[in-house]
Design goal:
The protein is mostly helical. It has helices spanning 40-50, 70-78, 81-84, 88-105, 115-123, 129-148, 175-184, 190-201, 205-208, 242-249, 269-282, 290-303, 308-315, 320-340, 349-352, 359-365; strands spanning 9-13, 19-23, 31-33, 216-217, 220-224, 235-239.
Amino acid sequence: MSKRLPKYCVEDVDRHGNVRIYFRRPGQRKIRLKGIPWTPDFMEEYGRALAGILKPKQPLASARVANGTLKWLFEQYYRSAEFKGLDGRTQRVRRGILDKVAEKAGSLPYARLETKHIRKWRDAKADTPEAANGLVKALRQVFSFAVESDIANRNPAKDVPYLRSASQGVHSWTLEEIEQFEQVHPIGTKARLALALLLYTGQRRSDIVQFGPHHVQGGWLAFTQHKNRNRHPIRLEIPIVPELQRIIAASPLGNQSFLVTDFGKPFTSNGFGNKFREWCDAAGLKHCSAHGLRKAAAARLAEQGRSTREIMAVTGHRTSKEVDRYTRAAEQKKLAARALGVPLSGATTDQWDNSTKKPNELKASGKRMVPRGGIEPPTLRFSVACSTN
């Protein structure tokens, strides 16, 4: 099937990361075309649009928002530099939270909103602590903006504490799960390339989709992280480990980015997330996610004895708080193994530490060499190289 779209057709991605096809003549509003390009249903839609029968939807007239209401305050926040400085995904998530509040309480005067009201809203979501905390955080940011802009004289959400969550967060991939994914998606597929980029760099999906040849400098990936790039940009340089280099060399690549869609264009962060979800499902890993590989990389570095600052140098975290959350379980496991004098990997104590033996001694014993600063394969698939100097 041809990958080129018919005349006047363009590919677009909605706020959920779904790829849509639109008909758009120069100077005219776009028209959504349903179906898969070049199929009979799609071509029927295309023909109607080409003939002028299929018309673009008219925008809904916006309702007037009364000054002084909570919804009015949200609208001011959306126009603020604080909100516009957030990355696109954070904007969508925060707007979604606040729009739900506006649906129920948007007509209330924001000046009369008190801490007890926000606490009540939080408690109504107690069954989902992450959602409850997301609501509190969003309202804190709105009223912080309002106070700084002299729109409000206090922040009623400031003294509402977050709920404690029993959740351990995103599932961290195990070695067995990575091998299961690799069995279904061999080297040379986009899925395997995506796995390697996530695993061997420890970065977020918003960074993975941007990686391309222009980021490679002398065997290193040099880039600015996508998250907070407009407010607090974080510049990183990460070495490309041999296994990642091998997979990149054996994979189909795009011109601008390593990973591209079926139409040859770079993925959006959400679009990639949806596609990776499909690849995980195909491998029978419905509980695994792209972010879980970032967590696994950080945890594995902790098991290798890397310091918090070394791990932060790879992940790009500004503070140790988030790194500690990623690595807490790994650190406990490592300390327990050290206290009891047993290997972390489950091998014998003699196998656990062969770093002091010479190559000929290892060869004679039949054991594999452990790379300096690394770990023994196949566990290397969890390793993200970083300097120990």
